[in-house]
Amino acid sequence: MKTMLAAVLHDFDDLRLEEIPVPEPGAGEVLVRIKSCGVCATDYKAVKGIRRNVKFPLVPGHEPSGVIAAVGPGVAHFREGDEVICQPSGYCGVCEQCRLGNTHYCEHAYTTGGDGPEDVRPGAFAEYMVTGEECIFRKPANVSFDAAALTEPLSGAWKGVILKSGMRVGDDVVIIGTGGIGLLCLMVAKAAGAGRLVAIDASGYARGNAMAMGATHVIDALSGNVKEQVYAILPDGPDLVVEAAGPIEAVKEMVGLLRRGTRWNVFGITTHEKFELDGGLAHFLEARMDSSFGTTPLAMQNAIRLMERGLVDPERIISHRFALKDIHQAMEAMGRPERNKVMINC
């Protein structure tokens, strides 16, 4: 029996490196030899017990790229040796939501190494991973495996900024929170022709990253009247505000920045916390609220196009790289304030 190295989460704060059997692809499935896998904050939260909707044992990791090592019966479009990108969210393709294009709402969804659906399968903090053919995309030759592994978060940024919030060329955009996903939103907005691009973050390290990735202005979230500072830069107010931070305070800050016609996207927060909204003010402002979670084949393909055409290089947000055997060091790095995207290389 052929075995592989994998990081297996047996309980909160109990991540073990183990030799486990290499899985075999079934009908319609492929076996991918993992080359790179990003560490998402949700992976870290699962390991540390901050996220509790975890079924043990679990092989985490849901941002992989790699090479097809074997194909199962019925796989028609890929073959051994193809360099590929993996979408973590699998879907049936035949339920009503799938046929409406909402594959991330699929009634029979599964995920490899992530969370959301009930059906959670082994992920990519391992040398090999099995997934469905519908989740596989070809990696362009001019895109590195590390960049390709960030297709899923980049696709989420495209989906939120472009598809859901309809950013237009020349729009003045405010990004609240410039960690990994905030920087990807910023880079997408830059590539899409944002006019002025204002980044807000409490971390000087994060603000420096935002300037390096194309922000025209940065604001310290802890420096005082943020709205006053935003309106000093954008006298007419922002066209689009993206909350990519996570804390409820960031959502409240976003609401305070609205003017007539502002579009705002609740992107970063995933916790069930409340904020107040003046109904009359919302009515007369005609502000449009959007939100975005997960990804779809449409978003993945558009993210791949951005990378292939040189419009966005997500590899620029990687701050740390670790071998799979050093996964515990990677988790330690995730807990440090001055880090951005952490990458696992197999």
Low-pLDDT residue intervals, each spanning 5 or more residues: none
CATH architecture of the largest domain: Alpha-Beta Complex
CATH topology assignment of the largest domain: Quinone Oxidoreductase, Chain A, domain 1
Number of helices: 11
SSE diagram, text form:
Blueprint: E1 3-11, E2 14-21, E3 29-39, H1 41-48, E4 64-71, E5 83-86, E6 89-90, H2 96-99, E7 110-112, E8 119-121, E9 128-132, E10 136-138, H3 145-149, H4 151-164, E11 173-176, H5 180-191, E12 197-201, H6 204-212, E13 217-220, H7 226-233, E14 240-243, H8 248-256, E15 263-266, H9 279-285, E16 288-291, H10 297-308, E17 318-323, H11 327-334, E18 341-345
Parallel strand pairs: 7-8, 11-12, 11-14, 12-13, 14-15, 15-16, 17-18
Antiparallel strand pairs: 1-2, 3-4, 3-9, 3-18, 4-5, 5-10, 6-7
Task: Describe the model.
With 346 residues, the protein is an alpha/beta fold. It has two domains: 3-149 and 313-345, Quinone Oxidoreductase, Chain A, domain 1 (Alpha-Beta Complex), CATH 3.90.180; 160-291, NAD(P)-binding Rossmann-like Domain (Rossmann fold, 3-Layer(aba) Sandwich), CATH 3.40.50.720. 28% of the residues lie in helices and 27% in strands. It is built from eleven helices and 18 strands. Strands 3, 4, 5, 9, 10, 17 and 18 form a seven-stranded mixed sheet that branches. Strand 11, helix 5 and strand 12 (197-201) form a beta-alpha-beta unit. Helix 4 (151-164) packs across helix 5 and helix 4 (151-164) crosses helix 10. The longest helix is centred in the middle third of the chain and has 14 residues, at 151-164. It is globular, with a radius of gyration of 20 Å. The two termini are 20 Å apart. The mean pLDDT is 96.
